[in-house]
Amino acid sequence: MLPPTPALSPLQHRLLRELDLSDLPAPDTGAASFAARGLDADEVRDALPALLWSGLVEQRGGAGGDLALTPSGAAALYAAECDELAARLGAVASFADTVARGAAPRPAGYALKRLAEGAWTLEQAEAHVTAAEEQPRR
Fold first, then answer.
1. What is the pLDDT of residues 77-123, one digit of tens each?
2. How far is CA 130 from CA 64, 79, 119, in A?
3. How far is CA 49 from CA 1, 44, 114, in A?
4. Are the C-beta atoms of 74 and 91 separated by less than 8 Å?
5. Distance (Å, rounded) from C-alpha 40 to C-alpha 131?
6. Strands (E), the chain
7. Measured between alpha carbons, how far is 133 from 137 in angstroms, rounded to an integer?
8. How does pLDDT run across 10-44, given as a tens digit for each residue?
């Protein structure tokens, strides 16, 4: 059994995803590299101590060295992504109840697509179908 992983903030999750693609320079020396990825170097600098302390990220070559994802960091990233996908799949399965109640196919199909993409919550998808059912037919 895997040891429990800490809950990741959205910034930590995003940073781990970036580090999964490639190592990054330290925020003090590579602010442009973070800006190119849509990350704020100051925010990364603030989030970094917790990631280093928890062993999810390592800094190679001392304080100014490159940041790299550790095996524990990769496991935490994949666990968080698995949790997100499991929640999304659960919402899709719950939405099947809405469709089974006889929802109109076009709004239900669109809502299902947005829900599966993660663009909508279950509540938004159900509200879309309900609103479409309340509109007069042409």
1. 999 999 989 998 988 888 888 787 787 788 888 998 899 888 999 99
2. 55, 34, 18
3. 27, 9, 36
4. no
5. 40
6. 57-59, 67-69
7. 9
8. 999 999 999 999 999 988 888 888 889 998 889 99
| Strand partners for 69 | 57
In the numeric block, which tokens belong to residue 76?
A: 């935490």
Is the pLDDT assigned to residue 1 strictly greater than 50?
Answer: no
Residue 53's pLDDT is 93
What is the number of alpha carbons within 13 Å of residue 48 lying toward its C-beta?
Answer: 22
Torsion of Cα atoms, 100 then 104 then 106 then 108, to 10°: -40
CA-based nearest residue to 116, from 88, 97, 84, 82: 88
What pTM does this model have? 0.72
Distance (Å) of CA 120 to CA 29, 99, 101: 38, 16, 20
